[in-house]
Here is the input.
Amino acid sequence: MTATTTSARSDLSELGRSETALRTFLHGLPGVDQVGAEQRAAQLGTRSIKTTAKAQAIDLAIRMVDLTTLEGADTPGKVRALAAKALRPDPADPTCPHVGAVCVYPAMVPHVAEVLRGSAVHLASVATAFPSGQAPLDVKLADTRAAVAAGADEIDMVINRGAFLAGRYQEVYDEIVATKEACGDAHLKVILETGELATYDNVRRASWLAMLAGGDFIKTSTGKVPVAATLPVTLVMLEAVRDFRAATGRQVGVKPAGGIKNTKDAIKYLVMVNETVGGDWLDPDWFRFGASSLLNDLLMQRTKLTTGTYSGPDYFTLD
Here is the structure.
């Protein structure tokens, strides 16, 4: 790390001590060219890959899936079955890779932990009054600590969008810092809920705020609002993690979540990652898909490439 990078990191670490400093920095970030971002995302979305490269992309995408169920009707049996699927997505094909993680509510964590124990699949839990983020801080932190104590090694927290949109950046920053501390050794993914942030400039500011406060990942969405992950929003977030690493030397992951349902869309995201931030992020440690139905389509396409025929989605179990 250069002396310049070390100095930049030191300067940025001071921002969280002052609301004024945070505001000045965040509003001093370059504005996002909305037309340019949308055109760039659309252009990247037209790229196609074939044969061997497509097979490699599908296997990589499977390894990047956070297989998720976040429903009020979730049961111990349902999440245990999901965890078993995460370990062996295609029981008929032992060459099929496992997914990146299983993501559930805190109450379901112990049941998933029983299945995943000793495996390389991570156990993620939403926390901090998901999905609204509207709860007292002590409740949010208790939620986080309980999930980690039960076995979660990744926490997906939601920011208080009301505080962010009202310009109370210090409050949002402090909550992320406190949640990161409550995580202990668990990684922290910070959900921005980009569909509620209204502008790409706000997405860029929220991305930087989350990273400055110590987030290990920035994540688009809860999947509980009408507008979830989009290619232009993810492009803005990828540019933010690229610029953040250039300024500080610290790499932060990105997780688009919600609305990514098929292999074609997943590959568009992988192309965008490669073209925007490069191969360093083409790894499950640095890029994930938050999804439930995506995995089945990836498995269908994988089977088509290897056997020449499609299997129905229910062949791999319906989640």
